[in-house]
Amino acid sequence: MRSSPALGGRSHLVILPSYNSGHLLRPTILSVLEKWKPVWVVLDGSTDSSVAEAHDLQRDHSELRVFLLPQNHGKGGAALVAMKAALDAGFSHALLMDADGQHSADHVVRFIETSMEHPGAMILGVPIFGPDAPSERVKGRRVGNWFANLETLWGGVRDSLFGFRVYPLAPAVRIMEAIKTARRFDFDTELGVRLFWAGVRPINQLVPVHYPPRELGGVSHFEYLRDNLLLAGTHTRLCLLMLTRLWSVWRLRQEWKRDTSS
Q1: Domain 12-261's class?
Q2: How many other C-beta atoms lie within 10 A of the C-beta of residue 152?
Q3: Cβ count within 10 A of residue 149
Q4: Measured between alpha carbons, how far is 91 from 116 in angstroms, rounded to an integer?
Q5: CB atoms < 10 A from the CB of 14, how many?
Q6: What is the rounded distance in angstroms from the CA atom of residue 235 to the CA atom of residue 252?
Q7: Between the chain's N and C termini, which has fewer beta carbons within 10 Å?
Q8: What residues does 103 pair with on adjacent strands?
Q9: What distance in Å separates the CA atoms of residue 15 and residue 65, rounded to the nearest whole number?
Q10: From CA 192, how far away is CA 198, in angstroms rounded?
Q11: Is the dihedral of CA 129, 236, 254, 173 positive or negative?
Q12: For 106-142, how does the pLDDT look when each residue is reduced to its tens digit (9 = 90+)?
């Protein structure tokens, strides 16, 4: 029997990796707790007010767990800490979302319910951009998406960068522990492609994304030159590796296309 969304469950949890998210972390945590429990927050070397605010909330909410990493591990590194702990605690899936107000908690239950219906799949958010979206971010991701489609032979990974996703923990942790990459902004791109290669079917769902203005606490740690170079290197490596998996990737692509059309 499925757990009530108001109470949450013991198979799925929500993980919020956070690095200096400021005052936006607190309302994000509270909004998620209203929709699903438990919620785990990873303070990834944070030094701002979000550290004290997260620990204050933890004292008032038994279903909130806060990890404080003394040094910055990057998004993927921080996510892996919580994902490993969740797997050890008996959880099978984790919904990851941004902690800085870009993602709405209103879609948490829908994504988790889809995951419960398809436990072998990864549930991938496809962003609906509003007028507040930086044009360079919208245009720039088209290149990355094209390469992710090439690496999966257009098998269904519609957005390679969006961080609102439900991952099956066992294959995700196994993949992450086998590689030393995917620790920073390359996390969602590389993990999504490698999960596809491992036979985890992608299911896409549209979800709005919001970019809070700086005067309201909006913050971005994405550095265009550094992180675009990182992503370029990631796609180069994945394209080369895909050549050794070409036949198996093609078979997976054909299988899931048949399932979708049937």
Answers
A1: alpha beta
A2: 23
A3: 16
A4: 12
A5: 25
A6: 20
A7: N
A8: 209
A9: 10
A10: 10
A11: negative
A12: 999 999 999 999 999 999 999 998 877 777 667 778 8
Q: What is the pLDDT of residues 194-222, one digit of tens each?
A: 999 999 999 999 999 987 655 554 556 56
Tokens 């030393």 belong to: 180
Write a three-state SS string for the chain: CCCCCCCCCCCEEEEEEECCCHHHHHHHHHHHHHHCCCEEEEEECCCCCHHHHHHHHHHHCCCEEEEEECCCCCHHHHHHHHHHHHHHCCCCEEEECCCCCCECHHHHHHHHHHHHHCCCEEEEEEEEECCCCCHHHHHHHHHHHHHHHHHCCCCCCCCCCCCCEEEEHHHHHHHHHHCCCCCCCCHHHHHHHHHHHCCCEEEEEEEEECCCCHHHCCCCCCCHHHHHHHHHHHHHHHHHHHHCCHHHHHHHHHHHHHHHHC
193 CB burial (10 A radius; 0-12, 13-18, 19+): buried
* Assigned token pair, 94: 């984790």
